[in-house]
Amino acid sequence: MSRCAEALAEALPRAEHAPPAKHVPTKPATFEDLGLHPPIVAALRTAFPNIIHPTETQARFIPAILTGKDVLLKDETGSGKSFGLVVALLNKPRVKSQEKGGKPHITSLVLVPHRDLAHQLYHWIQKMAVASLVHPPPSMASVAQVLVRDGVTHLTEGLRSLRQTPPHILIGTPQAIMDLYKEDPEALQLHHLSSVVVDEVDYLIETVPNKDPKKSFHKSFVKASRKLLAHPGVTRQLLDIIYARRKEMNERRRDEPGVTQHLRRTGKSDSQTFSTSPQLIFSSATLRSHLNNYLFDESGWLNKDYLVKVKGSRKPAEPKRSAEQYPHDGLGGNGVLHSVLLVSDEQIRNIEEAVPPPSVLENGDLQPISADTLFAPSANAEPAENDPELARKYAGTPTPFNPNMLEAVATAFALDVPSVALLVLPGNSPVRRAVYELREMGVNAQELDLLTDEKGRAHLLRGGATAQDNPTLLVATLATTRGLDLPELSHVFILGIPEGPKINGRTVDAYVHIAGRVGRFGRGGKVITVVEKQKDAETVEEGEGEGRRVVTEGSKMVRILNTIQERPVQFEHFD
Ligand SMILES: Nc1ncnc2c1ncn2[C@@H]1O[C@H](COP(=O)(O)OP(=O)(O)OP(=O)(O)O)[C@@H](O)[C@H]1O
């Protein structure tokens, strides 16, 4: 290990000296109160001067992590979960080799669903490492590394780098980590890990909700459960490898209920088995009860004797109400406005249920820019042009997108977005093709790619949204936007109902995550879902007698918003 990395590692506290969790005082806690080591807090303050106090949720889970507990963490999008996790992991003591002069081991493994999120966490760590008081600054390879699938480079350069300099924190997608494990299990040294974090756990570990055996849809539950058994997913497989001993012990505890007491009576204990495995942290804004139950009762991975559940308290679940019963003035709880646009060949309009927008927007950044200003040619604007090769390629093939819907996005974007917006396409949509179509409409559209694209990475750095000459529309799918934090973002456009037309918990969660890209830390924002206005012949009816109602794409969106206690607001540029 390099001298500077050694120095940073030395600056970290020893495990046995980790300060105890403190009670959260009534005045805002400081990061030092949580037990974070002063050099880490100093680096945090220098790198992120706007971050002054820990959030409520950080004040609860950071001490738990520092004391080695397993954590089940659930709080709303933008509450600082991922950021707090990174800070806590940086603070953990480095796992050193037992051999004299041996290389240190990887201390923490962070599993994330996609490479852009891996890159974002790395970027936060890099900023803090650069700002640390250790001189010269530590080599980044010894502090953190990213391992994501990228052709085979993760198995060549990635593996070489891990062998050469095992990092304090390894961030990767489960597939890439599994590839590497199969190639060379020793490179990861999984048995030496001190912590494992699974961020966006509900995306990485699939579970099926338990259904009443008497109900007709019980069959589909059985089918889905069988499918899951046959294809458990890579994250489960990885955790089964890392926590094989815990799993065995938990199973033994379940099958032989008195085993723990028996061991204690005979002077032995099974707690050693649990504490020699790395602490395990699961995090997400949406952790449904079936997943929670699976993780807690069935998985066998957790140390239930030493575990905390941290659940956000900002928005308690309320009994279901109809849209009219919501008292608020249309401005969402966290300053976010939710709109739904219905698009047909003839027009773009708001859904009927939408209420007028609040007269004064709280966030000055969101004041719409006039169309004249936007469409005026600007000296600095760099129009995003399509590659002629692409034009040739796409010219002969029909677009997979409804042009009216893309046009609605392009128009709304031009009329209202001051700086940066995100367009989320349905899963499996060809992102490049959407970018092409939007550019043909004159939109400065870019594929969201934080890892390989310098322009993309720049979006992680900038602060709040200020009007730009040529606003950017970043284009992505749900799979690549989970957990991302783009400080400039003021608008999110969603093409169609997220996760398909069926309205269930999954659809609602998908909407929550997409919408959660704005409204972070009081920055406000707008979420505009664009759906197709069905022709009368295409509409479906539900229910009987007085309860009979026509189900449209618009009414489905109202249902989703109702579930999350938000009310649709008119997008003011359309009727
Ligand atoms: N204590 C804090 N004070 C102010 N800002 C913070 C604080 N902690 C984190 N942030 C900022 O808040 C933003 C959101 O943080 P983060 O991505 O960790 O949220 P999250 O809860 O993980 O969201 P999601 O559920 O969408 O993944 C980031 O820009 C981060 O820099």
TrEMBL record:
It comes from the Eukaryota. Residues 62-305 form the Helicase ATP-binding domain. It is an enzyme of class 3 (hydrolase). Residues 409-575 form the Helicase C-terminal domain. Residues 251-275 are annotated as: Disordered. InterPro entries: DEAD/DEAH_box_helicase_dom, Helicase_ATP-bd, Helicase_C-like, P-loop_NTPase, RNA_helicase_DEAD_Q_motif. It catalyses: ATP + H2O = ADP + phosphate + H(+). A motif (Q motif) lies at residues 29-59. Its EC number is 3.6.4.13. Keywords: ATP-binding, Helicase, Hydrolase, Nucleotide-binding. Residues 29-59 form the DEAD-box RNA helicase Q domain. One of its GO terms (molecular function) is ATP binding. This is RNA helicase. It comes from Hypsizygus marmoreus (White beech mushroom).
